[in-house]
Amino acid sequence: QWTCRYSVLPLLVMRFGGASEVVVLFLIQGVLMMLSYVIVAPGGGGGVEVAAALVFPFFAPAAGIGVVLVLWCFSTYHLFLLAGGSAFALTLTADRRRRATEDLPADTPQ
C-alpha cells in the first residue's frame, strides 16, 4: 500500500516533465504526511498543500505544479475519503434494509 501511495507523486512529476528523483519525492511525501499530523485541522487544513506548493517547484515545471498538486491530493487523500464514505453509506443502507426485513427497531444494537 505504501509503495503504491508514495509512487503517485513521482509518476505525476515525471508525467509533467519534472525531475525523476523517486527517493527524494518519497521522502518529501513522508515529511508532508508527518506535517499533516502536526497541523491541528482535518487533513492538514491546507497546510500540506501550501508546503507542497513550496517544495514542488524544485521538481516539477512551474506550469504543471497546480495540476500535479491537485491530482496528487485527489489520488492520495480525497479518493480514500470518497471510498470510505461510499462504503459507510452502503453498509448503513444494508443494515437498515436488514432491520426493516427483520422488523427490529432502528436503535436496537446487534
State the main characteristics.
mainly alpha, about 110 residues
What would your notes on this structure say?
With about 110 residues, this protein is mostly helical. It is about 70% helix and about 0% strand. The protein is built from 4 helices and no strands. It has helices spanning about 1-15, 20-40, 45-55, 65-100. It is elongated. The chain starts with a helix and ends in an 8-residue tail after the last helix.
Topology of this protein?
Elements: H1 2-15, H2 22-38, H3 47-55, H4 65-102
Helix pairs in contact: 1-2, 1-4, 2-3
Poorly predicted runs are none
Number of strands: 0
The percent range for strand residues is under 5%
Could you tell me the mean pLDDT?
Answer: 86
Question: How large is the count of helical segments?
Answer: 4
Secondary structure class reads mainly alpha
The radius of gyration over CA amounts to: 19 Å
Helix amount = over 70%
Give, in order, the helices and strands. Answer: HHHH
Instruction: State the separation between the terminal residues, measured CA to CA.
Output: 33 Å
Structural shape: elongated
Q: Give the biggest sheet.
A: none
